[in-house]
Amino acid sequence: MSLTTVITPDFSEAVPDLNPWPLTVATYNIHGAVGWDGEFAPMRVGDVLHEMNADIIALQEVPLGGNGSPNVLAMLQDVTGFHSTEGPTGQGMERRYGNAVLSRYAIRDTRAIDLSFGSREPRGAVDADVDCHGHPLRVIATHLGLRPAERRDQIRRLLQVFDTDQMAVILLGDVNEWFMWGRPLRWLVSHFEAVPAPATFPARWPIFALDRIWIRPRHRLVHVERHDTPLARIASDHLPLVAHIDG
After folding, report:
1. Which PANTHER family does this chain map to (predicted)?
2. Is residue 131 domain-resident?
3. Residue 44: which domain range?
């Protein structure tokens, strides 16, 4: 009499889902983590990030620490568990601040783009290569200047870096463009094609579409919406802008 051993597969450990699509990206000017009530509350910003549940987030006006000043990016990285990279645009004796990217996926490489214009406030962009489980994605997060001539110069310089077809490219951030048909927006539409632009500023009564998300190739952008919740309306003077991207 022979005995046959039956081996039952062990499914106790789920196989991880390595397909990142659809991907959720967002841009959020956090106003130094100071809300409409004047309160410095980084953890409140963190709560907004949890509400959004985005995979990649571009942040503007982020305190980056220095000389005893709080490092808000480090706090937000801690509460999300995400990878991060920073792009300081202002560094003084008391504090560092600027742009940043938080990512659920590994950030393989980062470049800084200097967009400063004359004697105006220093500006820049973070240019990051994100590895979404083997699917490369280039993310350029920025915060443009307040004057039209400044923005025109900055957009011209930004468009010069979009010279690769090796991976999808996302440009997102606070472009500070108040005029719907201003030249900077026309140039961006010519390069990326038109995309929806919900109003995000001011947060409590949004009228202006200052925060934008573009992707190339355009067909991968599925949906764009502002993240409008009671918490988001008080945590900053901008509402976050969220986009869903397919593979």
Report:
1. CALCOFLUOR WHITE HYPERSENSITIVE PROTEIN PRECURSOR, ENDONUCLEASE_EXONUCLEASE_PHOSPHATASE DOMAIN-CONTAINING PROTEIN
2. yes
3. 23-245
- Where are the strands (E) in 31-105, listed by range? 56-66, 69-71, 83-91, 96-103
CATH number of residue 76's parent domain:
3.60.10.10
Q: Which of 197, 240, 241, 245 is nearest to 218 (CA)?
A: 245
Task: Give the count of domains, the chain.
Answer: 1
What Cα–Cα distance (Å) separates residue 88 from each residue in 95, 215, 226?
10, 24, 26
- In-domain check, residue 197: yes
SS3 state at 44:
helix
Query: Residue 185 falls within a domain, yes or no?
Result: yes
Going residue by residue through the chain (247 aa), what tens digit of pLDDT does each one get? 555 555 555 544 554 567 888 999 999 999 999 999 999 999 999 999 999 999 999 999 999 998 878 999 999 999 999 999 999 887 664 678 899 999 999 999 999 999 999 888 889 999 999 999 899 999 999 999 999 899 999 999 998 887 666 788 999 999 998 777 778 888 888 888 889 999 999 999 999 999 999 998 899 999 999 999 999 999 999 999 999 999 8
- Give a yes or no: residue 16 inside a domain: no
